[in-house]
Design a protein that fits this description.
Blueprint lengths: L2 H20 L2 H17 L10 H23 L5 H9 L3 H19 L2 H12 L4 H8 L3 H22 L1
Helix pairs in contact: 1-2, 1-3, 2-3, 3-7, 5-8, 6-8, 7-8
Amino acid sequence: MRFEEELVELLPRLRRFARGLAQSAGDADDLCQAAIERALKSREQWQQGTRLDSWMYRITRNLWIDDRRVAGRRGVHTSIDDAVTQIAGDGIAEVEAGALRGDVDGAMARLPDEQREVVMLVLVEGYAYREAADILEVPIGTVTSRLARGRETLMHLLGEAA
């Protein structure tokens, strides 16, 4: 399979990961676009036979960290698009699903960044601890402890929401 085809196939997972990091659909789309742009410009750095998904997650995470640093200097930005999307729908099932999604999204947003990225990689994307450690460039013990703390915090936060 060609590089571009593999990249297109990876898009839904990459966007989900970006959404978990960025906390808003618009910011996640921007993050995905920037990651793909960087990958296309740097495609000669990717080694055929290695995992493209791991490489892309690392690019996405590094861009997200850079964005967080810049945002920290600028202040907090709130997207009005997400608020409009949440109130535009109708129907009881949609409202209930939105409330549950809002509870989970809210709990994820309250996790420290380092716990949220491990939760996204291991629990949402299904990576093994070693793979997540490689993507995040941290020891496997760090992944284990961050995941344990993240799970505990999520259970506590979601228990409060119920």
